[in-house]
Structure formats: structure tokens, C-alpha cells
Amino acid sequence: MRWRQWLFIGMLLLSSCRKLLDVGSPIDNVTTNSAFNSDVTAAALMTGLYYDMSNGGAFMGSKGISYCCGLSADEFLLQQEEELSLSLYRNQIQTTVVPFWRVLYQYIYRVNATIEGLQAATKLTPIIRQQLMGEAKFTRAFCYFYLVNLFGDLPLVIGTDYKVNATLYRTSASKVYDLILADLRDAQELLRTDYLQADMVSVTRERIRPNKWAAVALKARIQLYLENWQEAINAATLVIDHHDLYDTSNITQVFQPDSREAIWQLQTVDKTFTDDAVLFIQQRSVQISHALLLSFEKGDLRRRYWLSGTGADLYPYKYKKVDGTGVPRENLVILRLGEQYLIRAEARLGAGDVNGAKADLDVIRSRSGLPGITFTTSDQLLPAIQQERRIELFAEWGHRWLDLKRTHYIDVVMESAAAAKSSSWASYAQWYPIPRSEIILNPHLFQNEGYHD
């Protein structure tokens, strides 16, 4: 069955059970249970979720993580006056207009409903049930990773009982990470190693449903953030060594749908182009910051092929299609091999393996047309790794914003960046506020430090 047919089934299911989309609302048990009476309808629930993720929400465009977190960090110069964008850019978010919280919890709620339905299902083909459970747990881990890194301690919603969810306290970040890692361990065991079409049976070259290696790649990132160096090395190595699927790509091919560097993508279902391309290329909502531009070394191919514009007025150009003409489509790349090399480089350095860290860093530099690193000490190499992450991952998935926070350089960097934005920096702004509406509804929630309702 073709993707659009499966999508149609998924949208029918969701339209008949619209309460699934509202955090804290009770689920229509009859409709939900019936979705797990066949492989087709059960698979359509996850397909429908991917569809929503690829159509705005928190994953793409002007309300997406890449754009909003880039505004918060030192990556962009804002060229518009829209309220949310301006508040993010100035690091002065109002508690009444907060990105990501609601939509990510909506995704989690739908995934929780899927997990519960799969656990109770008796009519599904076991291998399909297993794959769907793996996808659900992987997706929940991915959403919680961003929630905990953007908001800090937060309610840990793992079920669909709206009465329970409406009164949850904030859970410590360490406990949230425990759930993320548990979900990823399960996903790694449950997910297939190849990529599947929407029928959950046929193998495809497209990488638009998560597989085992997507779970391992995300686990490598988590372990890096937790400074579990050997665990991060082990996970990243599993992905990097899987040469039959993955390899670094020519710099012009990294963001193509058939890129061997891609580990997980979202398919742009209704169009052949990403909202990010329209945002950066057509709307020109931002230019890259002067600080970022100056960070590129002479001869870096990423400056030549991943930026466009004239003079110093350059904008991100990783995605290049802005209309529906021609083929192939461009998909949104979420996880890719370049990050895995940078994860392993930093983790190897943390574990004391300077030569191994240099070797991984040089893989990325060589692909970018740059010479190998000549540094010989950890004190020299760590800034080089962070610099390489800044250039390699700019305008992607909030990496710069989260890197500044986890490496504790955020105050130093953002004080300078705020001046360039004609703003000011306060350390509490590294955490986004809890939406005021959520605090009103749940008496057990409290606001992040520095924000006033």
C-alpha cells in the first residue's frame, strides 16, 4: 500500500478520535481499541503522527526547533518583527507565548496511547506489533530529550489517564533521562535494522521511519550529554561501523533524501520541499550571525555549499528546494552520521583518547575540504571539537543552543551575542518558561526561575 493510502487511513482514524490530540483529555476507548484490531490501522497511527511532525509543529519552519533555538543562540540575525521570533531572539520569552511545550506533549500523549494499545493488542502480527512499539518508544524518547533540555525538570507523562496527567509534579531531569534511556534500550531491541515502508513489511531505501540504528544514534547523543564517555563511544561506534547503510557523503549530498549519511528523516508528505527551505531562502527571515560567519575557516566547503546570499548577508542553504517542481523531494534530516563522528570525538577526548578524537574530527574536516587537526593536547582539542560542532550542525535541531548549555559556556557566549542583538542576557534565560496556562491548570507546577506570570 502506498504512503498516501496509509496516511489517509491514519488521518481518518485521527479525525474520528480527535481527543487523542489534546493533552490531558480522556481518550475515546472504543475508537482507540478498534485501531489495534488490524496491522493496517495500528500502523496508520504512527504514520499519522509522522505526518503531523512533518507539517510544522515543533519540527519544521518558523515554530520548529532548528529555527527557534537558533534564534535563542548566537546563530542568526533576525530580519522580522514577529512576536515569538523576537522574544526568542532577545531571550525574553513571555510565559503566554512559549514554543514546543504543548505540541511535544501532544506527540507524547499520542505515543502513550499507542503504547497502551499495543500492549493490550491480541490481533496484530507479532513482528509488526514489535516494530510499532519500538517506533513509539523511540519517538517518546526523542520528544522528552528536547523537553528536558529546553525546560529542565518537567512532568513525566507516561500514560493517558487525564486525571493523573493534570496533577503531575515536575520530575527531576535525571529521572527524565532514566526514562529516555529505558525507552531507547527497548527501541534498540524492538526496531528492525533496515528501513520499512508504511506497510511495516516492505523494505525501502528511504529512511523515513526510525530503525534500530536511529535508536542507537540518539542513545549516543544522550550518553554524551550525560558525560558517560564509554557508553557514548560504544553507541556511536555501532552506527559508524555499519558501513552497509551509512557513510559520510559528499558535502553537496548530505541533505538529499538518498544520502548515506542520513539515519532518520521525516518525509515532506504534501510537498517536495521543507518548510525550513522556504523560511530561510524565500522568506529570508534570518541571516546567519557575523560571529558564525567568521567561524568558518578559509576553504571550508560548508561555507560554499551550505550558505547562500551576497557578501556578508548569508542565510542557511542546507535545504535548497522551495517549490514543487522537479524531483526528487527533499526530506527533513533529523539524525545523521556527521553528528555521530562528533559525538565519538568528544567522548573519546573525555575518555582520554586524544588520537581517536583527532581521527574522528578529521573525518568531518576532510569531507569539508579542510586539513587535519594539528593540536596535541586535550585543552586545545576540546575547543576544536566544539568549533567543529558549531559549523557542522548550524541551523540544525538546536545543537548550538544545547551545546552552549551543556558545556557551561552559555553565559560567556550569550553576553556577547546579546549585545549584537541589541538585547541583554540573563543566565536564567537558558531555560524556557513553563507556559502560564499550564501552571493555571495544574496547581503542582511551578515556574522556572526568573520568569513571572
From TrEMBL:
Protein name, entry field: RagB/SusD domain protein
Domain of life of the organism encoding this protein: Bacteria
GO cellular component: cell outer membrane
Gene3D superfamilies to which the protein is assigned, alphabetical: 1.25.40.390
Span of the signal peptide: 1-21
Main location as per UniProt: membrane
Keyword check for NAD: no
Domain called SusD-like N-terminal: residue spans: 21-224
Domain annotation RagB/SusD: ranges: 318-451
Transmembrane region(s): none
Family stated for the protein in its record: Belongs to the SusD family.
Organism classification: Bacteria, Pseudomonadati, Bacteroidota, Chitinophagia, Chitinophagales
Places the protein is found: Cell outer membrane
Keyword Membrane carried by entry: yes
Keyword terms: Cell outer membrane, Membrane, Signal
